[in-house]
Amino acid sequence: MDRPPDDDRLGRAYAAPEVTVFYDRGRCRHYAECVRGLPQVFDPTRRPWIRADLADAQAVAEIVRRCPTGALHYRLLAAEPEEPTSPTTITTDSRGPLLVRGDLVLDTPEGPLRETRAALCACGRTQNQPFCDGACGVNAGAAGGTRDQAETSPQKR
Fold first, then answer.
1. Domain ranges in the chain?
2. Is the pTM of this model over 0.90?
3. Which residues of 56-75 are buried (b: 16+ CB within 10 A; e: fewer)?
């Protein structure tokens, strides 16, 4: 499956025949939509923790779209990339980040990034601008999902 240029900025790739899932550990705030949605695919007790081959590609894509932070992305072999939400929405999470969905172009240290979902820093203390990195304490307390030890995205190495 050929990768568009921005895919190199989406994190570690977990490939299956019909779908590739990308995971950027630095953007994950552990909302656990993936773990609750398809536990056979997203299992934090297993390595690799993402096994996209264990479910239908369309079902995997649907669950990945639920990820509010944009830590998860997908590419389907036989379909167009994820369509942005319209109109763009911004939701405040009382624990910290601004959850944004839409046709986004984010200003990052590596340059502009086209995006459909993101958890943006609202406290100003992040080390992963413009994304929330948990400096506000959003991940304090009980974990809601995976604490994967996967590699960080290529731009963070």
1. 5-136
2. no
3. ebeebbebbbebbbbbbbbb
